[in-house]
């Protein structure tokens, strides 16, 4: 690795550090490489031309080289954490202390880039082999100084299918209530990451077992089977996964799902996009489950082309694959003659018939389009004839325009 090489050439130590070493030892390609070095930030600044001082007081610099951005961080020890999240100050130190400040043993490894030698001050290799997430040092103290680590433990355990060490589990249980103090934004980011792959089934179960679920979601803790979470397709998007989780926790209890979604939006600081997606898939799911059978052809077609239809159907599929397959087949049949064909008539056509814009104008257009979707009319002429009939009906006060 070029960046490490440059540091070494300048007479410094430079190791791959943390997550990337762990990933390489597990045979996974790391998403990004972090380098730990004994060079001070100002020295890093003189060795590389393109350096961004993202956290110079913490000793963290971003180095751009050959199109890659590498995080280069000076070996350090973290001082006291008085906010439960950030150390008040850091002291530059050596590799061993830098390993000891990290969260879990599997995240505390270094690798010498040229030789591939692993530098292990924390027993990380053994835990990686056995599959254990273990806090470095005293779990109580480590989780108290940064409470987000409780969620990181769950995330890594779920992602790799590892067990959490008993003492670390104890410490999480004892401190679960303290998660309250962590910013909602960070909690939301962790949850998003831990729900992003198939490990989400274990993640949800572990959160429940450790008593973290209620605090995270600002509601009562649960002890629920994650049927829908487990039944979801692997690639489901975040909002759909949240939908499955919400149903697993709340379906059949007569609660207003949109209201719960709103609360989750605050609890996890969801973006508008994710919140819309969550509400959207729940709404479609509800309609599919309760109303699909009685819905007419036009109604089914409208639903099938609506934005969250696919996501709602994934939710239903996670719960009842048979029902969702039936609906999929029916939609495929409906699609044969167009789910959303070009309307025979537009507003301009309607004006030309002499109908003036008014309250019934839009309703007329809708009624004619629905008749088209139902297959009740086949041509523009038939559409015009239908308009004439509906219009005269309206004017005879018979209210023939259906809702
Ligand atoms: P991911 O694949 O999710 O990025 P990662 O292990 O690389 O996993 P990062 O959040 O990118 O996680 O952090 C990089 C490294 O920094 C970690 O491997 C760990 O050594 C250290 N680290 C990160 N967050 C913390 C924390 N909250 N407390 C202590 N050390 C941490
Ligand atoms: Mg990382």
**Coarse morphology:** elongated
Mean pLDDT across the residues is 92
CATH topology of the largest domain: Beta Polymerase, domain 2
Q: Distance between termini?
A: 67 Å
Tell me the helix content. Answer: 40-55%
The H-level CATH homologous superfamily of the largest domain, spelled out, is: Beta Polymerase, domain 2
Number of strands: 11
Ligands: adenosine-5'-triphosphate, magnesium ion
Query: How are strands sequenced across the largest beta sheet?
Result: 3-4-5-2-1-8-9
The structural class is alpha+beta
Q: Work out the count of structural domains.
A: 4
CATH class of the largest domain: Alpha Beta
CATH architecture of the largest domain: 2-Layer Sandwich
The low-pLDDT segments are none
Fill in the keyword field for this structure.
403 residues, cca-adding enzyme, domain 2, 4 domains, two-stranded antiparallel sheet, 11 strands, Beta Polymerase, domain 2, binds magnesium ion, elongated, binds adenosine-5'-triphosphate, alpha+beta
């Amino acid at each position: 690795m070029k960046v490490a090489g440059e540091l070494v050439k300048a007479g410094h130590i430079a190791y791959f550090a943390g997550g990337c070493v762990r990933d390489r030892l597990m045979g996974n390609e790391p998403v990004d490489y972090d380098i730990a070095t004994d060079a001070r930030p100002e020295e890093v600044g003189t060795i590389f031309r393109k350096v961004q001082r993202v956290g110079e007081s913490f000793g963290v610099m971003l180095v751009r080289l050959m199109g890659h951005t590498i995080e280069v961080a000076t070996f350090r020890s973290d001082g006291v954490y008085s906010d439960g999240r950030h150390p008040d100050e850091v002291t530059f130190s050596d590799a061993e202390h830098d390993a000891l400040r990290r969260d879990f043993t599997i995240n505390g490894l270094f690798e010498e880039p040229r030789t591939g030698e692993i530098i292990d001050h924390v027993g990380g290799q053994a835990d990686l082999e056995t599959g254990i997430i273990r806090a470095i040092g005293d779990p109580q103290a480590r989780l108290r100084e940064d409470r987000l680590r409780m969620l990181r433990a769950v995330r890594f355990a779920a992602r790799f299918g590892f067990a959490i060490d008993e003492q670390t589990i104890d410490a999480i249980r004892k401190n679960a209530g303290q998660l309250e103090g962590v910013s909602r934004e960070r909690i939301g980011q962790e949850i998003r990451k831990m729900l992003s792959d198939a490990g989400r089934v274990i993640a949800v179960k572990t959160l429940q077992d450790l008593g973290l679920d209620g605090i995270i979601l600002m509601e009562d803790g649960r002890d629920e089977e994650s049927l829908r979470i487990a039944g979801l397709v692997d690639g489901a998007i975040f909002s759909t996964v949240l939908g499955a989780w919400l149903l697993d926790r709340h379906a059949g209890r007569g609660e207003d799902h949109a209201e719960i979604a709103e609360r989750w939006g605050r609890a996890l600081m969801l973006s508008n996009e994710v919140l819309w997606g969550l509400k959207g898939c729940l709404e479609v799911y509800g309609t599919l489950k309760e109303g699909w059978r009685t819905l007419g052809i036009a109604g089914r077609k409208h639903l099938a082309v609506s934005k969250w239809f696919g996501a709602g159907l994934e939710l239903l599929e996670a719960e009842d694959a048979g029902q969702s397959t039936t609906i999929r087949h029916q939609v495929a049949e409906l699609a044969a003659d167009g789910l959303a064909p070009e309307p025979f008539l537009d507003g301009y056509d309607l004006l030309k018939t002499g109908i003036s814009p008014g309250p019934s104008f839009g309703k007329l257009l809708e009624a004619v389009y629905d008749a088209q979707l139902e297959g009740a009319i086949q041509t523009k002429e038939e559409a015009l004839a239908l308009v004439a009939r509906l219009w005269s009906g309206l004017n005879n006060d018979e209210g023939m325009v259906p809702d």
